[in-house]
């Protein structure tokens, strides 16, 4: 397994180099550059000033030369300054990353826990009224637009009942943990409802297939309790395909949820990446997008390694 993990890490490093080139090229080919934006904001800037600034920032060089210069600095841990925030990239990125991990991680854990419970219940009673009710809930959660659900929650619990704050990360001048948790309730509820339906459908399908396997019938024939059959045998087999789905969603834990963060004015990675791309903030957009990419790749590697723990038949020799 160590040899397999080492090979995969080398592949991830090569893929990250390719991804950095692609992302840098896409951002670099966008119309306009930071100097052009500065000129449009300041009509008094002369053509000589523009040429001098482009030479100072290296914007006048070919795209490949600019990428190689950026890659050399990035390998040393230097990702430059953010033009929009006038601060080092990491000082802008890390607080937003912490906010997004808190928001997305909470909703991910809640959605997964609900999906395991609802999916297992539905799989144990297929085609029953309970199964139909769970399926209806899942389809409703998948079909409801996120922005509409966020508006409904704001109107009901913030504007109507006044129980929860409608937006923001915390009350100004307050560092109370309880206050921060109150601000998290509505966005976490929005993301949980939006994602639990899809997870539940995957768990239900995997559990139905696992409960039909020969080793499940053998365990029941030997007198194993229903709880042991479900949680020790069936659920472990069902988690193999579900693990793949969860690994694919890990990139979203870092890149954030743009719609939800915008609706609740939450300072997370989704809004930050959007603003960086729209504002031609090369350094900030590159660092944020590469961070999301490497997270998704490492999550895929972790899922591959988890297969051997979930299914003893899987071997990486």
Descriptive keywords:
76% helix, single chain, 1% strand, MetI-like fold
Count of alpha/pi helices: 14
Determine the CATH superfamily of the largest domain: MetI-like
Which residues form runs of ≥5 with pLDDT under 50? none
Based on CA atoms alone, the radius of gyration comes out at 24 Å
The number of E-state strands comes to 2
What is the residue-averaged pLDDT?
Answer: 78
Helix fraction, binned, reads: over 70%
Estimated share of beta-strand residues: under 5%
Structure description:
The protein is an all-alpha fold and 317 residues long. It contains 14 helices and 2 strands. It folds into 2 domains: 88 residues, no CATH class; 214 residues, MetI-like (MetI-like fold, Orthogonal Bundle). A two-stranded antiparallel sheet has the order 1-2. The radius of gyration is 24 Å and the shape is flat. It starts with a helix and ends in a 7-residue tail after the last helix.
SSE layout:
Layout lengths: L1 H27 L5 H8 L5 H11 L5 H13 L5 E2 L4 E2 H36 L4 H15 L2 H15 L16 H35 L2 H8 L4 H23 L1 H6 L2 H6 L5 H10 L3 H29 L7
Antiparallel strand pairs: 1-2
In short, what is this structure?
This protein is mainly alpha-helical and 317 residues long. The chain has helices at residues 2-28, 34-41, 47-57, 63-75, 89-124, 129-143, 146-160, 177-211, 214-221, 226-248, 250-255, 258-263, 269-278, 282-310, and strands at 81-82, 87-88. A hairpin with a 4-residue loop joins strand 1 (81-82) and strand 2.
